[in-house]
Amino acid sequence: MKKNVTDSFVSLGHWPSAGSFGLNTDILATNPINLSVVLGVLIFFGKGVLSDLLDNRKQKILNTIRNSEELRRGAVEQLEKAHTRLRKVEMEADQYRVNGYSEIERDKLNWINSTYRFLEKLESSKNETILFEQERVINQVRQRVFQQALQGALGTLNSCLNNELHLRTISANIAMFGVMKELTD
């Protein structure tokens, strides 16, 4: 006779109560019974423990998600602040760059103007020095020409004048001075 699993459960109710306690060696008949008893005990007693474990795990996961969301929000805020600061620093850098270029150009123009003024003063000083040297040379030439003319005139007078002419010239000059003195008195 062939037994199936449902027959084993049904036959539990038909066991003789008088008897002895024995070992059933029929594996196919006893395994489902043992498994169903163990599962029933586990479900009955372990239901609360398993539920508590699952609830605790659920709470930890939810707390972790909440903490992660808060950290993400904080990171997003810090990122936005960093972006704002970066834009501000970039604007300041651009301003410094523009001011720096303007200052460099201003310094360059000031240097060029200063150099131009210095060159103008140098040119003016050069021209004044040239004029001064020209006047000095002209005066030297005049003095030499005058000295040479005077020496030439004296040489001509000395060669042309003899003692008699010389004495007459001196006498005429003395007479002329005498007349001039009488007129002024």
Automatic annotation (TrEMBL):
Asked if the keyword Cell division belongs to this entry, the reply reads: no
Taxonomically, the superkingdom here is: Eukaryota
- Principal cellular location given in the protein's record: membrane
- Annotated InterPro entries: ATP_synth_b/b'su_bac/chlpt
Q: Which GO terms describe its molecular function?
A: proton-transporting ATP synthase activity, rotational mechanism
Can you tell me where the transmembrane regions are? 33-50
Q: Which GO terms describe its cellular component?
A: chloroplast thylakoid membrane; proton-transporting ATP synthase complex
Described by its record, this protein's role is as follows: Component of the F(0) channel, it forms part of the peripheral stalk, linking F(1) to F(0).
Assembly, in brief, is: F-type ATPases have 2 components, F(1) - the catalytic core - and F(0) - the membrane proton channel. F(1) has five subunits: alpha(3), beta(3), gamma(1), delta(1), epsilon(1). F(0) has four main subunits: a(1), b(1), b'(1) and c(10-14). The alpha and beta chains form an alternating ring which encloses part of the gamma chain. F(1) is attached to F(0) by a central stalk formed by the gamma and epsilon chains, while a peripheral stalk is formed by the delta, b and b' chains.
Other facts: In plastids the F-type ATPase is also known as CF(1)CF(0).
Entry protein name: ATP synthase subunit b, chloroplastic
Name of the coding gene: atpF
